[in-house]
Amino acid sequence: MALRFGLFGTGYWAVHTHAAALTAHPAVELAGVWGRDRSRTEAVASQYDVPPYREVDALLADVDAVAVALPPDVQADIALRAAAAGRHLLLDKPLALTLSAADQVVAAVDRQSVASVVFFTSRFNPAMEEFLTTAVGETWHGARGAIFVAVSEPGSPYGASPWRQTYGGLWDIGPHALSIVLPVLGPVTSVAAMDGPAGGVHLLLRHTGGATSSLSLNLDGPPAAKIFDFTFFGEPGVVPVPRRDITAVQAFHGTIDALLDQVAAGQPGHPCDVRFAREVVAVLAAAESARAQQRSVDVE
Are 257 and 162 in contact (CB under 8 A)? Predict the structure, then answer.
């Protein structure tokens, strides 16, 4: 029997990634849509020929799992309610905008023993997963990474996103960068942060074991300066990280597979579950403090 999903969100990412992948997947069923804007909810529901829902709990009652594509603070509340109802979770990064909210989601998932996967897009690229599998266990001294995007360039569907405008590249792009360096170098113990031009932010991280990493992030830089570039260095030499070579829909298809595997095995737990996502939020929160205080901050 297909796993029934409720979609929470009606924006571009929800419609063109989440809904598109869910409706194309042979082992799941998109059962309904909830959004904060009623007219958009009805339009998305009509596009995918599923019922629109006005109440969160009504949709939760009719499904086995949720896919959430909403601002992080809204997502955290939906995730709490879904986990409390025993529903499995497909969430987006960042998990939440505060460490306390992330902790609440983790606690709810643990209480109900539901499966969870958080969609760190690059982590569901087979080439990236192959690289990380090979890299883990090697002796690395550090890594450097840069992700610059131009969210306001013409044609971008994310330029008007209020939460991105408020929280910037640290919270929107930072999770992608951390999802690459944390599995290889280990948890972060302290972080320093500095603002750069055009809304950029630059992080220096110390990991358990002594390795360090530097991350440069810019959400709304010049279109000509867009970049995705990561390199690890250590005993294996200087090793670049592969770029994503699949679409977002294909990557989300892999996220669905990962959740289904947990449900079938009856054993919640995935490298990109809410516990890992909480670790990412902890680093981001520490970086936000370091940025404001202009000093290094320990990670909780």
Answer: no
Q: Which residues contact 129 (CB under 8 A, 6 or more apart)?
A: 123
- Condensed to tens digits (0 to 9), the pLDDT of residues 226-263 reads 999 999 999 999 999 998 889 999 999 999 999 999 99
CATH class assigned to 123-245+281-298: alpha beta
- State pLDDT tens for residues 116-142: 999 999 999 999 999 999 999 899 999
Give the helix ranges, DSSP H, for the chain: 12-13, 20-24, 38-47, 56-61, 72-84, 99-112, 126-135, 162-172, 174-185, 248-265, 274-293
Token pair, residue 210, equals 């002594």
Site of tokens 């260095």:
233
73: exposed, middle or buried (Cβ count in 10 Å: 0-12, 13-18, 19+):
middle
Domain limits of the chain? 3-120+248-270, 123-245+281-298
Partners of 203 in the β-ladder = 193, 215
Buried b (16+ CB within 10 A) or exposed e, 20-43: bbbbebeebbbbbbbbeeeebbbe
Q: Fold for domain 3-120+248-270? A: Rossmann fold (3.40.50)
Distance set, CA 286 to CA 181, 197, 281, 282, 294 (Å):
16, 21, 8, 6, 11
Pairing of strands 212-218, 140-148: parallel
Position 135 scores a pLDDT of 96
Q: Is the dihedral of CA 107, 11, 97, 224 positive or negative?
A: positive
pTM of the model: 0.96
Determine the pLDDT at residue 1: 77
CA distance 98 to 280: 11
Instruction: Tell me the pLDDT tens digit for each residue of 77-87.
Output: 999 999 999 99
Q: Which residues on adjacent β-strands are paired with residue 238? A: 233
Give the pLDDT confidence score for residue 294 in this predicted structure: 82
Mean pLDDT of all residues in the chain?
96
